[in-house]
Amino acid sequence: MGHHPVEDSNRSNNRSFEEIINARLSRRKLLTGTASAATVGVLGSLALTGCGGSSSSDTRTTASNTVTMNPERLGFEAVPGAIEDRVILPQGYKADVLYAKGDPLFSGLPQFKNDGTDVDYDSRSGDEHDGMHFFGMNSSGQYDPQASNRGILVLNHENLEDNTLHETPTAKADALAENNITDLKKFVDREMNGHGVSCVEIQKENGKWSVVLDSPYNRRVTIFTEMEMRGPVAGEDFVKTKLTPTGTRRFGTMNNCAHGYTPWGTYLAAEENWYAYFNVGTVDALSEKHQGWLARYGIQGAGWNYRKWDEVPGDQYARFGITTDGAVATEDFRHEANLHGYVTEVDPFRPTQKPRVRTGFGRFSHEGAWVAPTKEGSPVVIYSGDDSRREYMYKFVSKAAWSEADRNGGLAAGDTYLDEGTLYVAVFNDDGTGEWKALSKSNAELDGTHTYNDDGTTYQYDFASDAEILASARLAADVVGATPMDRPEWAMVHPTNGDVYLTLTNGNSSNRPSKDLDAANPRAINSNGHIIRWRENEGNHAATTFEWDIFLFGSSAGATSDYNVSGLTAENEFSSPDGLFIDPRGVMWIQTDDGSSGIRSKTNNQMLMAIPGEVGDGESVSVTTSDNTGQESINTFVGGNAEAVQLKRFLVGPNGCEITGIIMTADARSMFVNVQHPGEGGSAETFNRNVSTWPATSGDATAFGEAGNRPRSATIVIYREDGGEIAI
Ligand code: FEO
Ligand code: CA
Ligand code: CA
Ligand code: CA
User: What PANTHER family does this protein's entry cite (predicted)?
Assistant: First the structure.
């Protein structure tokens, strides 16, 4: 069964119930030959959700401007793929560099020299900009999502570019070799302060955005920042350490990849590759269960991002070396890793309040944490994927029902909605249905003793409490049969029809061999990734069942049609989808983090746009891939092809970068995007300048940088030259 082009290219979200049911029925028939009783049940739920679809284009008015809702066309010419060391945009668009690595938050600081001598990263922009939100602010200093000319930009600094951070490529290694603790501490402090989160007030004057230096809202959250542990894990014995003997506080957050934001005006910073910063020494005194936790989270020996911070004297540094060398847990750092892997809530509007670590969402490599649109009287629902190979998709459902009275409630509202609730993990069935399995003591599947096998070493474990289930969520998800995915990255709920989209960035031969495919992850190796989506039963985000299909498959344009399933062409071929945003108008933006696929020889990382349809608007297809063990064809469900969803390339980034982080103002006139690690892959001797010297000192993001620049991650702001609505 090959891929049949979708006849229905109407993407306006206004199909009748009957059409949706017929489409769903026909693809079930293609797959199974008959509509089973179970299928009829599925159709019943779809009919109920059909009313969630919106009508065709209309407009909405913000404080200052009119915005097109549910547009049917994208109003720009796609940009060609390119390998150029600058940002490339469609005709009629421009972009400024707004906030680059090292930019000061306060006027008392020296300008960034960018020669590796800069210090004070706790008062400057950190490195490797990633997830980001714009919190509009009204004239009384309150969160106002409609405010489009002033606000607080909050963004993550995921990681460091070692080749550009210090004075010379060998400076830190030399200090280590010479045991020069003074120098080493300087380098380590720079590295720990280069991570975390930035909160920075920005304003638009005369059509141009700039940073408001010395704003009371400007601050950095770093790996030193004190935070409160909250939710079920706080205070448990397994999070007590020498620095937090009560298990109720933690220092810092690290490897903050993507993010989320709440309707009560706060920011959610997710920790992704936190596990890689530790070095595990002798941990003989840990129980088998807790040694199993270390193994299941990949915390063994020196992690790939271990930076020898624990070679600096003092507990703030020693905590990155995990050992049981104390007499009891509060005399060492055997439990330090149990304090990480959660989502942290930051209130940009109350800068003196300590961030709160929300353990109720579970512990894993959180890519981000995306809050579904809230409804008075219904629980708050948060989607969060675990971005590691063969890991799972989760959601948190609050115990408390949402009340509009909490809309600007800050961290106190967070206490209400985020500290009590239920964590679920997704099972994607091959028939296009899915189920959310509860990870709590209420689920009898988790009773008793279980075994985790790590390359021949086995660990017995049980779950003594909900706190243990959350802190070892991966092990609980294993037990209930969650579906291993091809690396869940960003999730996004469609603002009008409620469909949930999730980028699955890619797989490799070990996590997705041809003998281990399923309909939701149907490709062996899957170097180009795909985007899956689902609709919760009756459109209720707290539901425990859903319907799914695959929105788009990444591919090079030249691949055969049973691999290039979505029919990508030169103007929209892409690989490794990561950042994802559906703006308030219903327009989708897809950002790529493509390392080495064939597409990288044709274009730098990029951002594309589409007008998505809805779950169930496509059909059944067969996808064929192979690896060195054989070739497999898997039946799955795919939405409209690239032409039907008007997939078009909007932006190409500078050399060596990843494009990640995206948010638009409510008036759709300004869009903020992050360019992460331009110059990656360059040589240490040239400080990566052999690959990139972006950005230019002029601040024009579309200009080439000067020859002497060390490349810098940066937030850019994109405008239409005539001041109009972006992309329409
Ligand atoms: Fe930091 Fe999953 O990307
Ligand atoms: Ca990412
Ligand atoms: Ca990624
Ligand atoms: Ca990255």
Answer: DUF839 DOMAIN-CONTAINING PROTEIN, SLR8030 PROTEIN
pLDDT tens digits, residue range 65-77? 899 999 999 999 9
Domain membership flag for residue 329:
yes
In a domain, 280, yes or no: yes
Q: What are phi and psi of 46, to 5 degrees?
A: -65, -40
Q: Ligand 1: residues within 6 Å at CB?
A: 158, 257, 272, 367, 387, 489, 578
Peptide bond just before 263 cis, omega within 30 deg = no
Average pLDDT (449-465) is 97
Q: What is the pLDDT of residue 598?
A: 86
Q: How far is the CA of 362 from the centre of ligand 3 (A)?
A: 20
Closest Cα to atom 1 of ligand 1: 257
Backbone φ and ψ of 428, nearest 5°: -100, 110
> In this structure, is residue 727 part of a structural domain?
no
Ligand 1 atom closest to the Cα of residue 257 is 1
Domain region containing 75: 17-720
What is the spatial distance between Cα 109 and Cα 124, in angstroms, rounded to a whole number?
A: 9
Q: Whose CA is nearest to atom 3 of ligand 1?
A: 257
What would the pLDDT profile of 475-533 be if each residue is shown by its tens digit?
999 999 999 999 999 999 999 999 999 999 999 988 999 999 999 999 999 999 999 99
Atom of ligand 1 nearest to the CA of 158: 1
* Ligand lying nearest the CA atom of residue 658: 4
Burial call 584-605: b when 16+ CB within 10 Å, e when fewer: bbbbbbbbbbbeebebbebbbb
Ligand 1 atom, smallest distance to 130 CA:
1
Q: Which residues have CB less than 5 Å away from ligand 2 (the ion)?
A: 257, 489, 578
The total number of structural domains in the chain stands at 1
Distance CA 430, CA 40 (A): 16
